[in-house]
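Notes, Module 5: Reading structure tokens.

Key idea: the token line is not a picture. It is a compressed description, and you learn to read it the same way you learned to read a sequence, by spotting repeated patterns. We will look at two proteins. The first is printed below with its tokens.
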Amino acid sequence: MTALAGVLCGALSYTLPARHGAPDHASPTPVAATSSATPLTAEGLNLLPSETLRDWVTYGDHVVVAKLTSTRDLDTSDEEKKAGEGYIPRQVSFDVRRVVWSRQGAPDAPARVALGLDGSVFDATSTAPLRMEGQPALDKVGTEYVMVLTKLRASAYTSVPGWVALSPDSIVPISPSDPTTVTAGAGQRVSSAVSAVQGRTVDRVASLLAHTEADPFAVPYMAEPPDERAQLAIRARRDSAEVRVERAPGEKP
């Protein structure tokens, strides 16, 4: 597996964003698998905040129930084929069954969406699945998920526009034994947002989102592309902190 781990960084930092419009992941760190049947896990930085429900309603356009309809491997590059090692991207397709929540002013939700979150890495002797940290397996057709979708636009931070999941861990399975209840996937990282929806019915998730306010530092920029909105919110928060530091103790704004 040493050779597989060696090609992992290039696959994440270049192939996924450039070829499939997935959120950029910076400085991925591979965690070696013990066999070719065990997925490798890639850790990286998400393009957009997604840790909390506030992040979901600030940077998501829609929260939907989506049914996994198909998965397929896409072609690897000619250079990787010639080298005998590289990355095989995987496309995972979903039908949107229900819109649970929508951001005011968001573009219409898609009827279906194809995501390029993951794939496989290979060398001359073996192939191993590659999964992003926090994402569920996404390998069983018919499984339904609560999913946060956002539409990226061409910007300084995004080269390939289109519908994407807000982050790998903003795709949360619905329990197969109780099709109304959300449950974290096996081994899925449980963020604050996932913890808030886990064990809830989809209707309860809709209510939670309806009563969650967007990040006040991002509110003035809700018409901007989501990645630019995030950067503007960071600057606004930083500027606000600097103003508070500059004021004398007890000084009124």
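Here is the second protein, with the sequence above and the tokens below, as before.
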Amino acid sequence: MLHAIPKESLQIPEALLPIITRITNYLDVSRIYCFGKRQFTKQQNSAIFKEDKEVTLAIHYDLLVFTIKSYPSGIAGLQDEIATTSNVVSTATLFLHREIHLQQLRDEQQYFFYSIMKPENLVFEQSNYYFKPLPFSNPKIPINNLTEVWKTRVETARSFIAAVKPITKSSASGSVIIFNLHQAAEQLCLGLIAVFLNYYPNYYHLPYLFSICAHFTDLVSDLFICIPENKKNLIGMLTQNVSYIRKEKPLVLTNEGLYFLENTLENFLNESNKLVAQKLKNDVESQIKINQ
């Protein structure tokens, strides 16, 4: 039910209403902000979200969701449900946080929330909840911090990729290779998200990180989603939950499959470096103009 939404004051796209209903039925929500909207074909996501689906255009939303209670695993089940529901023409990536977290943000985390929590982005609000004012105002992009964050993430990713190269290509080594490359992809995604959104996710499932990256770049789609059909099973192995990679029976990789994944991750690292360098350069130039 959507009784808490003051419809006279909020402009809510019709395609977004089923998503809001599903979220508010699943979680004790205080407010929701919509800060991104794009079209995609469901077929493009088939490498990540299991079986192929019809090629149908859908609207994808980026939603900052605040809850009153704590839901340690809430985003996992809800995100999967939204992503795999076939009778809905809209999907969403959720950025899930408790209201209390707003009072506990570190300096480098403030810009993301401040830039999104605008009246024009509000699509749901619990009318009987008392909202504390934000404990900060007009935070700046923490450029120096982001530079260090990216440096750490990219070097960690580089180490995981390098660790794969000397591994003997045998049936028993597939899981080790996939684990290392999965970790590399995760590190790069986290670094990109920090630099482009000033955001630090609290949920690390790789398909989820891919969906966040899609908010600001097509790179992930180009490398991991819009790929030949005969490569999609390899990406499916890469993006599965890391605990499954460890526990499942040994994964078997052919040399061709191994080289494809290695090359994909190396391309991801190199192209990400270029994107980040340009983004940080733009941020510095923007900051100089503001200070003049």
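Summary for the second protein:
- Confidence is low (pLDDT under 50) at residues 1-8, 44-50.
- The first strand starts at residue 29 and ends at 41.
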